Amino acid sequence: MNRTIRKLLTLLGPLLLVLLGAPALQGTAAAAAPPAGQATRYTMTAFTNSSESNMYVYDSPDATGFTLRKGPAYTPPSGLIRDPSIFKHTDGFYYITYTTNWTGNTIGFARSADRVNWTFMYNYTIPISGLTRTWAPEWFVDSDGSVNIIVSLTAASTATHFTAYKITATNSALTTWSAPTQLSGIGPNYIDTFVVKVDSTYHAFTKNETTKYIEYATASSLTGPYTFKKTGNWAGFGDWVEGPALVQLDNGGWRIYYDGYRAGKYWYSDSYDNFATWTTPTEVPGLTGFIRHATVLKETVSGGVTTPTNTTRSLQSVNFPDRYAVVRSDSLGYIDPVSASSSTAVKQGATFTVVPGLADANCYSFRDSSGRYLRHWDFRVRFDSSNGTDTFKKDATYCARPGTASGSVSLESYNYPGRYLRHYNYALRVDLYQNTDTFRADSSFTVVNPWA
């Protein structure tokens, strides 16, 4: 986004964002990130290009950079484990349901106490006569607490004419299920239906098997009738894509993951306006080309990275420990050498007051001695006085994630999730996460005693 447009956005706010087609952060909670002592954890389960019979488990603090926790983590006693969908039940266990084979009428179940060690439970037969394929089961827990599975079924002789159905657990052990009910309005020939509920509306993302696009429909009831709102390449996801899975981010936005199976890539994209527009698709770092049809579970867990607020601190580069984040006379941010022999002005430029985040009090903002805030502008870091707009507050807010060194922190942009404060040629920027040791080191800082 160029400088002229950013000035217009600052002056005119969210309305202009919508007119320009850029995603605006609307309806975001004042403090969506977990409080001190807690952290967000995103757990991903997926099968892979290398095996349809093994499930891999990853997790992430930010829904962007995922770390392998175990792989393979689960192999069923027979058959396949395609399309594993994960959720956490009220009994404290994690459950997956999955496609057991290319043909047949069953879905599989397994559970785990720790997300990495799984125990097979059973295969469940969908009680519909003549089924030839039973694919892509997805958990959906409704606002009334009911546990449901949305599954794609067909009785066709070939892999076509799928229709979405719902089954609902009739006991807390998840071993007995209601009769299947079709999701009215979705099908035939739609597969991989994934549903989320926002307020009283059900939002379904589903693959059109004819056009190979992910389409979007809404309903006032889980079973419909659904009305398609967007078809074709409405969101810029492209064609020959499948397996949509959504999760909500800490800043209130929604992220969709999907499988670009023809291109052999795995993508994500974000929306901040009730699913109307989406950011340019980005490959999932480190996993694109390897994982297939994943789902992601969001939880709040103990731990996380915190630093005291309303105190003065300096930010020391992890991989250039003689350099610190500074503001120079041009109002831009850099990492520069600072030492005991440095001038008072240099020490002052490397000292900031850490305050609760302007856009989210559970994140952080950094203010220099003249009252200016560390913020990004065209992804370059600079220091500006607050103009009181929502755009400025979001630009100046960073959420803490674990850094590469013990006790260090990485600072994720609040309004551009997946972008981190990092140095490049000693200039400070907010750049998209890269699955490299260099990037992780460049984006890690130690919060230390102030120089001034």
From TrEMBL:
Keywords: Signal. The keyword Glycoprotein does not apply. Residues 314-447 form the Alpha-L-arabinofuranosidase B arabinose-binding domain. Coiled coil: none annotated. Pfam families: AbfB. InterPro entries: AbfB_ABD, AbfB_ABD_sf, Glyco_hydro_beta-prop_sf. GO terms for molecular function: alpha-L-arabinofuranosidase activity. Residues 1-24 form the signal peptide. One of its GO terms (biological process) is L-arabinose metabolic process. The keyword Signal applies. This is Arabinofuranosidase. The lineage of its organism: Bacteria, Bacillati, Actinomycetota, Actinomycetes, Kitasatosporales.
